[in-house]
TrEMBL record:
Pfam families: LacI, Peripla_BP_3
Signal peptide span: none
Upper lineage: Bacteria, Bacillati, Bacillota, Clostridia, Lachnospirales
Name this polypeptide is given: LacI family transcriptional regulator
Start and end residues of each stretch annotated as Disordered: 329-351
Ranges of residues in domain HTH cro/C1-type: 2-46
Protein keywords: DNA-binding, Transcription, Transcription regulation
Keyword DNA-binding appears in the UniProt entry: yes
CDD domains found in the cross-reference section: HTH_LacI, PBP1_sucrose_transcription_regulator
UniProt-listed InterPro entries: Cro/C1-type_HTH, HTH_LacI, LacI/GalR-like_sensor, Lambda_DNA-bd_dom_sf, Peripla_BP_I
Organism of this sequence: Candidatus Eisenbergiella merdavium
Domain HTH lacI-type, first and last residues per copy: 2-56
Gene Ontology MF: a single term: transcription cis-regulatory region binding
SMART domains: HTH_LACI
Length: 351
């Protein structure tokens, strides 16, 4: 490990001079400072932030707790958090709960992570959810200033999420503009609040277009490819099948396309498909899938900015929602010329 002694020896100056250059505590001549900077670069010297914290009794440390670091949404969020705090001279300690499921074991793991962050003198925490669910039940465990990213907590907490309602409404509006009147919907797990926000947004677009959504065209899923495939096959085998299907994540949309192929339907000539998330599978599917892009990096960046503002004593908005964007690819086309069904009354509600 390269130390300040090595840098001083390479530059031919005292340890105190190197320290003054690094910390900018005393004025050093430009020529001497240049020699020290050259030595720092040649040796790839990295200052020991913990030693500096012990000496000055100031701790620029932030904790990040991720429910599941392998979840598709987590890496871009953490990347943005680390980039922001690195720019502002903070170290980041990352704890992974490995698919937090609210069990007794997982709660103990969360407590252990919090103890670790408190022991490392973290000034604040960013909690990154594995999905957009509500985590208010763990709020009482966290004593440090906290910002929740990609999840929601209580109204009194600072949360950074995205606008599910408007995103789903955008998807339905696109299909309506392309002439679709019979649109199917494969949802995620109905025990998650944000799923209902997407359903409401989807319905709002249908109401605006004076269209109805029959209960038979709505099917509740569990986010899996397998169940989505079965549900898509059921929808597509109906006498008056949907001409378009909105699936609430991209793997589910891939399953819809597979089911369409099984039913000898072409995408998008016979059936249009929209996904959600903008995962890599949506771009590499054949045909590529039109989807909603979640601004994951922006969520992480805003969470980091919000926490730093909190630590500076500034007031920030409690609930900040970022807009999603529509990524148009090749899975949506004009509605096919198929016989219309009779008007459907009493569309019903999904509960």
């Amino acid at each position: 490990m390269i130390t300040i002694h090595d840098v001083a020896e390479r530059a031919g100056v005292s340890i105190a001079t190197v320290s003054n250059v690094i910390n900018k505590t005393k004025k050093v001549s430009p020529a001497t400072a240049s020699k020290v900077q050259d030595a720092l670069k040649e040796l790839n010297y990295v200052p020991n932030s913990m030693a500096k914290s012990l000496k000055t009794n100031t701790y620029n440390s932030i904790g990040v707790i991720a429910e599941e670091i392998s979840s598709f949404n987590t890496p871009p969020i953490i990347d943005a958090i680390c980039a922001y705090f690195d720019l502002h001279g903070y170290t980041v300690t990352l704890c992974n709960l490995r698919s937090y499921s609210h069990s007794e074991y997982d709660t103990a793991l969360l407590r252990s992570s919090l103890n670790l962050l408190e022991a490392s003198r973290a000034r604040g925490i960013i909690y990154v959810g594995a999905n957009s669910g509500n985590v208010s039940h763990i709020r009482h465990l966290i004593q440090l200033p906290v910002v929740f990213a990609y999840c929601t907590a209580s109204p009194e907490d600072h949360t950074i999420t995205y606008d599910n309602f408007s995103a789903a409404k955008m998807a339905a509006q696109l299909l309506v503009r392309r002439g679709h009147r019979r649109i199917g919907l494969i949802t995620g797990s109905l025990d998650q609040e944000f799923v209902h926000q997407r359903i409401m947004g989807f319905r709002a677009a249908m109401v605006d277009a004076r269209l109805t959504l029959p209960p038979s065209f709505i099917t509740a899923g569990d986010w899996s490819y397998e169940l989505s495939y079965e549900q898509a096959c059921r929808l597509l085998s109906m006498p008056d099948r949907p001409t378009a299907i909105f699936a609430m994540n991209d793997p589910m949309a891939c399953a819809v396309i597979a089911a369409a192929h099984q039913c000898h339907l072409r995408i998008p000539e016979d059936l249009s498909v929209i996904g959600f998330d903008d995962r890599s599978c949506s771009a590499y599917s054949y045909p590529s899938i039109t989807t909603l892009h979640i601004p994951l990096y922006d969520i992480g960046d805003l969470a980091a900015r919000s926490l730093l503002r909190m630590l500076s004593g500034e007031k920030i908005d409690m609930d900040q929602q970022l807009p999603c964007s529509l990524v148009e690819r090749n899975s949506v086309g004009d509605a096919p010329d198929v016989p219309n069904t009779a008007p459907i009354k009493n569309a019903g509600e999904l509960s």
